[in-house]
Every structure is written in structure tokens, then in C-alpha cells.
Automatic annotation (TrEMBL):
Domain of life: Bacteria
Keywords: Hydrolase, Metal-binding, Protease, Signal, Zinc
Keyword Protease: yes
Keyword RNA-binding annotated: no
Domain Peptidase M20 dimerisation: 217-362
Record's signal peptide: 1-21
Similarity comment text for this entry: Belongs to the peptidase M20A family.
Protein name, UniProt field: Acetylornithine deacetylase/succinyl-diaminopimelate desuccinylase-like protein
Pfam families for the chain: M20_dimer, Peptidase_M20
Amino acid sequence: MSRTPLMAALLALAIAAPCTAAPAAKLDANDAKAREIFAKLISYKTSVGLGQVPAMVDYLAGQFRAAGFPQADIHVLPLGETASLVVRYRGDGSGGQPIALMAHMDVVTAKPEDWQRDPFTLIEENGYFYGRGTSDVKDGVATLTSTFLRLKSEGFVPKRDLIILFSGDEETEMATIRDLVNNHRDLIDAEYALNSDGGGGTLEENGKPRMYSMQTAEKTYASFELTTHNPGGHSSQPRADNAIYELADALEKLQAYRFPTMWNDTTLAAFKAVGAATPGEVGEAMRKFAANPKDEAAADVLAKVPYEVGKTRTTCIPTLLRGGHADNALPQSATATVNCRIFPGVAIDAVRKSLQDVVGQKVEVSVIGSPTASDASPLRPDVMAAVTQVVHARHPGVPIVPSQESGATDGLYLRAAGIPTYGVSGMFIKDSDSFAHGLNERIPVQGYYDGLDHWYGLVKALAGPRK
């Protein structure tokens, strides 16, 4: 990156200045409490196999009880080694059905010996909060909890019930969200849900806000096994047919195949907005695709960009291989795991049939587990208006762009159950600061406190009295 004269001057000042940190600004009572909660949550090792999610649930439930939420409205739901937590904030009923507010309490495994700092201690350093889960997504858990506590302390009575929904295993099995949807629907039923584990703002590397993405759709996560079979035999007596060769041929066919181009209101709106700010061939392709999604030349350009291709079609890619059983034996079977990210609205079995057609009838194609498909959520004017209001209060004029996530969150299960879900995180962050799932995970300190204002304003806008 080239340095402007101003940047050079600032760098010279930084080198000449003594290495002392500026004193932290004094936090008000609400922010101080939110920081205390955040630090406590980071200390829980809530990755798979450690069994600490229930302890974190007990801590959070205690916070809600101490704030005056009735025990009858605090639901701790154990499930295996993990648990979920549902808390209802009672409204006066004048505004319609409840709104659910979501986050997950578990985190991806972190090995302390690989980190520069203890991943389970919230460390504030150089304008960042470090720790496992700071961005994915214990900041959401802390922020939503703090928002409920603040509103309760102010005597706020929402015009509709608000429901906190904290799941316990989003990073692995997603069993807790499925349990809530299938077995406790009465506790979480809502007109729509707001997900802290999706959406959010992007900053340029100079700190200037670029845009805010509101996640309205997610692709379906589904994996399939492609398996070939063979009688096998002694390796000294090769056969013309071979399970590994046949699997390799099938994977070559899959490599050459592209699923049909698809689009929805979210992807077209996103390409229109992002394309206007994206230079070069890719930006031109975005603009053309938004204007005419049947423009295959534009779709071809986007298909070559790894972070854009998933927005234009279903994608399937081999991720695991296994085959044979001995060095000196012909393979009796060979299997490839193929992971697919399926475009919203496409049935899982339709993708299985497409894979079968591509690889041929000699290859067995089967779905792994019981994946769930979900459609895109409609672009609700009330949610769009409220998000725009709170984002523009901090960053006037920043584009609000609907987005489709190529990954997956708990939100897909709510959408599949008929509860529209919107990723509306309050965090603005640079691409270079995104370390979710990786080493030295961090978020901007200011971004965390701005997120508190974001959620407080969003709840007031959607569930407060009409002005």
C-alpha cells in the first residue's frame, strides 16, 4: 500500500512517540456491565467435547434472574453435553407476534499453545478485543444479553414479546436449534428472527465504512457420498474395472459440471449495490447480472470468482476421499465426500439426482445425515427501515445491502420452519481483521460498544411504542 504524506507524517510521529497506551475512556454503567459479561463469556471453553456450555447457560440465566426476569420466562434446555437458553421479555401485546433474537454460545476449538494470547481470556490490546468467540459469536451473546438487561433496568415495555434464543452447538451438530424448532416451538415461535451471527458492516482498510450487509438468505449445507464398488481381488491380477479409477472418472465429470445459474431478490439487490462500487470486469459483471440474470457471459465471469460463484448457483466440491483396504488387494470400494452449498429454494434430493445424472449409474450417490433446506426470507420493509435507521445513525448514507450467505447458521432451521430470519449484526470490521475460526480472533473494541447501541436502537425501533 502506498503511503500518503499524511500517513508518512503520522508514522513518523508514532515512531517518535513513547510506547504508552492511551488511557481507556471511562465506560458508563451499561457498557461496563456489557464488558463484564463479555469477559465472563470468553472464559468459558464452549468448544465441542469440553461440556462447558451448560455452565455458561447457568451464568447467563443468573444474569437474567438478577435483572428481574421471572423464572417462568427463563428456559434452560439441556441436550447431551450442551444446552440452549430461551428467555422471554414480556410485551404488552399491542404490536403483534414476538421477535426472536439469536446467537450461539459454542465456539470452534482453540489450542492455546498456538495462540499469541490466552484464547479464553478477554484481552484488550491496541484497540481490539482478543479471544475465542469475540467475533463468532460471543459478542452477539453478550450484546443481546446486555440489551435485555439495559431495557429491563429502564422499565421498557415492548409492544410485542421479545425472545432471546441462544443455541449450544451451531459450530458442530446444530442439534440444539433443531431441538428448539422440533420440540419447543411454543417457546421460540416468532413473526421473524434477528440473528447476531450474520450480516454486519464492512470497513475499508482506512476505517471508512464501505457498506452494511443484511443477511436474508443462506445456502443449504449438504454432503453426499459418491461410492464405487468392485469384487476386488489380488493386486498382482489387475482387472479392467477398478473402484478407484471409476471414482476418479466420476470426479472428473463432476469437476466439469456447473449447476444452472440462479438468482433471487436478495442476490440481485446485492449485485446491483456491490457492483456499483466494484471496479473492473467483476464489477461490470455484477451490474450486468443484476440488470439481466440471464446474461450468461456475466454469470461466467462471476463463476470464476470463488467468493461470488456461490451467489449465482449451487456448488458441489469433493472434500474427502477414502478407498481400498490393503496395499496388496484390488479396491473393493472407493468413496468421495462431496460437499454442496445449495441455492435457496432447491430441494436436496434434486441435487442428489443431478449428481447421479452427472456421474452415471455405476456410482452410488447418497446423502449424508439429514440436512435441512430453507428458502430466502422476504425483504420486509419494517426490518429494512429499522436496520437502515440504526446503521445510518452511526454511519450516514452507508449502503444497506441484502446478502445471501454461502455458509450456514442456525438461521436456516428457523427459515425452514417458516420463521423469516435476518442477519443484522452490529459489528463493522475490516476484512483484514476477520479471524473467526482462526488464530488470534479479534474484534475492534469500538465495534463492540457500537454494537450495543445498534441492538438497543434496533429493538426500540421494532418493538418500541410508535412515535
